[in-house]
Amino acid sequence: MTTSTPRRVDTYTVALRTVLGKRVKRLRGDGVLPGNIYGRGIDSVAVQMAAREARQMLVSHGTNTLIQVQVTGERAPRPVMVRDVRRNPYSGLIQHLDFYQVDLTRAIEVEVPVVVTGAAPAVALKGGVLIHGVNIVHVRALPADVPEHIEISVDGLLEIDQQVTVADLQPPAGVTVLSEPGIMLARVTRPRLAEVAAVPAGAEAAVGAEAPAAEEGTSG
After folding, report:
1. Which of these CATH numbers, 2.170.120.20, 3.40.50.1220, 3.90.230.10, 3.30.70.100, describes 108-197?
2. β-strands 94-101, 163-165 pairing
3. Count of CB atoms within 10 A of residue 6's CB?
4. What is the pLDDT of residues 51-91, one digit of tens each?
């Protein structure tokens, strides 16, 4: 059984930016981050926002999440997603943000986290070990329909070697899962096999096709 959590749409304030090029370093020193809003069929707009608010925004929503930005002086907020976060390679501090303005009537492709819930009976009753597979799936949906995450329960795993896969996900109406159906999300295995299946430290596993960038923003 799977469930999904719809994403709430929060609004953040940004201001038009007149400081461009190398001079943006002074903005960062004042606690202000440079950014750009771009999208299909619109002109790129240089903006800025308080660095503290930007950090809170990323903690709450990350990237590929529908939010709104209210540009100072404009009547209505713009529906956007954070598409690029550039950080200082040494300090890790945010240097620049790119917002992609979406068309709420056009479907987009994004990655959504998978959250495993429940307890597999085969662990307690059969001595099995629950191992986790991928934790992100690739989906297509209208921006407002993209869920914050999709949950899948392991309560039905009664035997050793039973598993849940992408095919077991039940996305909400309007959401299509694009990841391969056979990809494992969680499985109950024997303890020795679980050790073999463990991913070595530092190894990276491919979790599915990366969502294609719609366009490139500008960093000026």
Report:
1. 2.170.120.20
2. unpaired
3. 11
4. 999 999 998 887 778 999 999 999 999 999 998 899 989 99
pLDDT band of residue 212 (cuts 50, 70, 90) is very low
Q: H or E segment at 93?
A: none
Taking the C-alpha atoms of residue 114 and residue 166, their distance in angstroms, rounded to an integer, is: 10
Q: Comparing C-alpha atoms, which of 85, 190, 176, 194 is closest to residue 132?
A: 194
Helices and strands per DSSP (H, E), number in the chain: 4, 14
Given a cut of 90, whether residue 195 has pLDDT beyond it is no
CATH of 2-101, one of 3.40.630.40, 3.20.20.20, 2.40.240.10, 3.40.630.180: 2.40.240.10
Q: In angstroms, what is the C-alpha Rg of the chain? A: 21
Residue with tokens 């959401």: 175
> Residue 167: is its pLDDT beyond 90?
yes
Amino acid identity at 122: A
